[in-house]
Design a protein that fits this description.
Layout (H helix, E strand, L loop, with lengths): L2 E2 H8 L3 H9 L7 E2 L5 E3 L1 H15 L4 H9 L5 H35 L5 H8 L6 H10 L4 H12 L2 H23 L7 H17 L5 H13 L1 H5 L11 H17 L10
Antiparallel strand pairs: 1-3, 2-3
Helix pairs in contact: 5-7, 9-10, 10-13, 11-13
């Protein structure tokens, strides 16, 4: 039994244009012609079409489908296994994106409750990168400290933020002065500044022991978005993030009574 292009299009759920494309690509050409010259598909053609649509549903490109059909050396099972691995990786990636989206919603809900104008007035050049905040939420999702920090941030009033950012600005000026004057990163002055930053986090967000402070400072070097929350890009200097990290590590070692590789010259 033979079927016209229109009939195949109807019961296969593909457009006539798609069938013409498969024909032009040499992937599926009708086996017969009617007396009037119209193309007709055989039962074998429909089986091949079904296979094509199956591979297309799995995301195979047309040239790869053609290779499976035409090359006897091609192992369809191996192709399917490879595609299964790709799909599994894609599923994992999409799942992570879904988590990021969910966290982004949470960050937006529990973020700083200020209007854009108030944010500019209070924060000035300091900006909160949503992508970084979301990734931090994912990274510390099971951390009680992260949950407390987000909850306390959401509860701060405009005046709280004004005072908080005033303290941060004063600390930032002292840090920049120490760096510009060539103060060593393991000096008492630099370590005291690191301690002030640690206590600032504990006072306004969540208890920050020295070990946690070290991890926060590691992010200053690893991710520019993290350091931008402390020093706006317009005020940054080459090497300042590493300097701040070393000072924090040196201060943590002072608390522990030990020595780390951070206790080095600037």
């Amino acid at each position: 039994m033979s079927y016209s292009v229109g009939q195949v299009s109807a019961f296969a759920g593909v457009t006539v244009r798609t069938l013409h494309h498969y024909d032009k690509a040499g992937l599926l050409s009708p086996s017969d012609r009617s007396h009037a010259g119209y193309r007709l598909y055989s039962e074998a053609d429909l089986v091949r079409l079904q296979q094509i649509l199956f591979y297309r549903e799995l995301g195979f490109p047309l040239d790869e489908i053609a290779a499976i059909f035409e090359d006897p050396q091609v192992n369809p099972l191996e192709r399917l296994r490879a595609r299964q691995r790709q799909l599994s990786e894609e599923i994992a990636r999409l799942q992570r994106l879904a988590e990021v989206a969910e966290r982004a919603i949470e960050v937006q809900k529990t973020g700083v409750p200020l209007t854009p104008q108030e944010r500019f007035e209070v924060f000035g050049e300091i900006t909160f990168d949503l992508s970084y905040a979301t990734e931090a939420e994912l990274k510390w999702a099971h951390s009680e400290g992260q949950r407390e920090a987000m909850a306390r941030a959401a509860s701060h009033t405009k005046e709280d933020w004004r005072q908080l950012m005033g303290e941060a600005a004063a600390w930032r000026a002292e840090l920049l002065a120490a760096f510009d004057e060539g103060e060593l990163s393991n000096s008492e002055r630099a370590k005291d500044l690191a301690e002030e930053h640690r206590l600032h986090i504990s006072r306004w967000f969540t208890f920050c022991p020295p070990d946690m402070h070290r991890r926060i400072a590691d992010d200053f070097v690893a991710d520019p978005r993290a350091f931008a929350l402390v020093i706006p890009p317009s005020q940054q200097r080459p090497g300042l993030a590493a300097y701040t990290r070393k000072a924090v590590h040196a201060n943590a070692a002072r608390h522990a009574g030990g020595r780390t590789d951070s206790e080095e010259d600037q």
